[in-house]
Amino acid sequence: MNDTDTAQVIIRPPLAWALAIIAGFSLDWVEPLPFLPDDLPAGWIGAMVFVFALGLGVWALDTVTGAGSNVPTNRPTTTIVESGPYASRATPSTWACSVA
Q: Do the Cβ atoms of 61 and 71 come closer than 8 Å?
């Protein structure tokens, strides 16, 4: 049993993000699938999603640091944050239950 008081993350977030991007580009290269119709401005939609995700990340970091907890996953957890972007109880598992 490991008694360290950290998140015990196997793949750190920057590396996980980079691996997801590489996997997406690789899959698109191997088997390109049209995600959106050709008449939609995919570049603008992608830019809006990127800005939304960046804002959500900044909000999450601000909430965690404002609560006095550590952001790096290799440092001890000092506070459980339940406000800001973490206040929602909607998780992917509850989405699946509400659809069925």
A: yes
Q: How far apart are CA 57 and CA 26, in angstroms?
A: 25
The 10s digit of each residue's pLDDT in 19-49 is 999 998 999 899 887 777 878 887 888 899 8
Q: What is the pTM for the complete model shown?
A: 0.64
How far is it, in rounded angstroms, from Cα 15 to Cα 39?
A: 34
Q: What is the DSSP string of 9-75?
A: -SS-HHHHHHHHHHHHHHHHHHS----S-TTS-HHHHHHHHHHHHHHHHHHHHHHHHHTT---STTS
Query: How many Å separate Cα 37 from the centre of its chain?
Result: 26
